[in-house]
Specification:
By secondary structure, this protein is mostly helical. The protein folds into 2 domains: about 1-40; about 45-109. It has 3 helices and no strands. It has helices at about 15-40, 45-75, 80-105.
Length: about 110
């Protein structure tokens, strides 16, 4: 994590902007390279939509709300109730299940 935010430790604002700009350009080029590589390697866009749908629907409907509930409970120092522990269990069970559901599409079981 230190390499990513290393430009924040620079004293001058101009140097911060310059280093932040270099990081932005490097990450943008990396993301575009991955996208172009995948688009050249894949024969059908169906598999891309399947993966994106599986990741987004599971994370939006189950993983993110449980994670936010646990973090808010911890930040506000509220008592840990049954819902708190249920959220942790749900997150720990559904996270690997979501990953397996994506992997299972592409392997023969």
């Amino acid at each position: 994590m230190e390499e990513i935010s290393s430009y924040m430790n620079v004293a001058s604002p101009e140097e911060k902007k310059k280093k932040a700009r270099y990081h932005f350009i490097a990450y943008t080029i990396g993301i575009y390279a991955v996208i172009i590589g995948l688009s050249l390697a894949l024969e059908s866009i169906e598999s891309v939509f399947n993966i994106i749908g599986a990741i987004c629907s599971t994370s939006i409907s189950i993983l993110m709300p449980t994670f936010f509930y646990v973090k808010l409970t911890q930040m506000r120092k509220q008592p840990k109730t049954f819902k708190y522990y249920l959220s942790i269990v749900l997150f720990c069970v559904m996270g690997p299940y979501a990953l397996f559901s994506i992997i299972a599409l592409y392997i023969d079981i």
